[in-house]
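Write out the bound-state structure for zinc ion.
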Amino acid sequence: MTELTAVRPDAGTVIFNLPDYRGLDAEILAFGQRRIHVESTAEAGCPSCGVIGARRHSRRRQRIRDILVAGPVEVLWSKYRYFCDEALCARKTFVESTPQVPRRARSTRRLRDALVSAVINSGRAAAEAAAAHGVSWWLVQDALNQAATQLPDVDRLRPRMLGIDEHRFRSVRFFKDPETNQWKRYEPWMATIVDLDTGQVLGIVDGRDSKGVGAWLFARPLTWRLGVQVVAIDPSAAFRKALRMWLPRTAVSVDAFHLVKLANDALTGVRQRLSQEVRGRRRGPRTRPGPIGACCCAPATASRRPGWSASPMSSARMTPPGSCRQPGR
Ligand SMILES: [Zn+2]
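---
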């Protein structure tokens, strides 16, 4: 017979399933919202000396944001402050924290992981992920920023194919140079280097010129650079310059998005040129309405745009001069 070595959790705690927490109570509010009260089951250690707190000082309730559990749930954490019983510790009291809700955090780690996964793994926009989880766009962006800064040790990886592209992460800003007292335009660009096999972000550098990407490649070991076989970039001369300098033997290709865009732009240019040559004009009226009282059969050359020529077919349909029968003429 198997016997449990711990206290069996109640049904609410099992369904809520937040590690290191147990449910105290649950209630339904006025408009059907659900609220659940939880407390921590983990031992609280002093952040300065590590001694486990045994005496409670006080308690307060903190609202934390969490994932949807069969719909939105408001989570209230009964959070305790403990005395630190270590005589040599300068910290007299401390507030408990858990791996799911570290110090000064207001959302659970599983919520932040779900937001990052929704954007990175599922390819959803930050605003869409925020709406789906009932949180603000800023929380999603903060979780993404935190995940981006926790980059792996790039030099231990052996990527075969790299992708480099630029991204403007905010709108254009103007700032005043204190030395020259002149306003200067600042475009906040950054370049991202990813492993095309895994989709993992390897590095983010400031700007979109050859210096940033070149310095990042220069910082990699020689064996790392020799292992790269293909780099996909947009048609950027700056990236191309950095690759010629630091990855001279690596094949360079244009990524699919920019390749299709270039083909579409070229096709549009050919269509516009042929349309102009065959039809002699673009869409729209050949002539503008003349002034009041002017003869409709008067030459309309002044109203034509410069460089446009009328086709013979359209000229044949023009009214012969003097053939109009406007009253009073
Ligand atoms: Zn302490």
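---
The pocket of zinc ion is lined by residues 46, 48-49, 51, 84, 86, 89, 91 (CB under 6 Å).
The first helix runs from residue 11 to 16.
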